[in-house]
Amino acid sequence: xxxxxxxxxxxxxxxxxxxxxxxxxxxxxxxxxxxxxxxxxxxxxxxxxxxxxxxxxxxxxxxxxxxxxxxxxxxxxxxxxxxxxxxxxxxxxxxxxxxxxxxxx
Length: 105
Description:
Belongs to the JARID1 histone demethylase family. By secondary structure, this protein is an alpha+beta fold.
């Protein structure tokens, strides 16, 4: 049974990434049409570099006061967890299994 699962896994991996086992890289984000046509429809994963370099947050958030100014009249909800992982699977402190960490209210 394990051998059949391994064969199936190898076939799925070959279909999605080809025989090389490596991921292609793009140095810039594709257009939405290119992304759909060349990657999504072909079920081919890619690593896309510089995909966020045009985001305004990269320049606006360098000022300490930007978020204070932008959110000064907004109600902000803060989720506290011991390790900053709200709504995530984390190792249990009492066993070797994972547990769901919810935010402290």
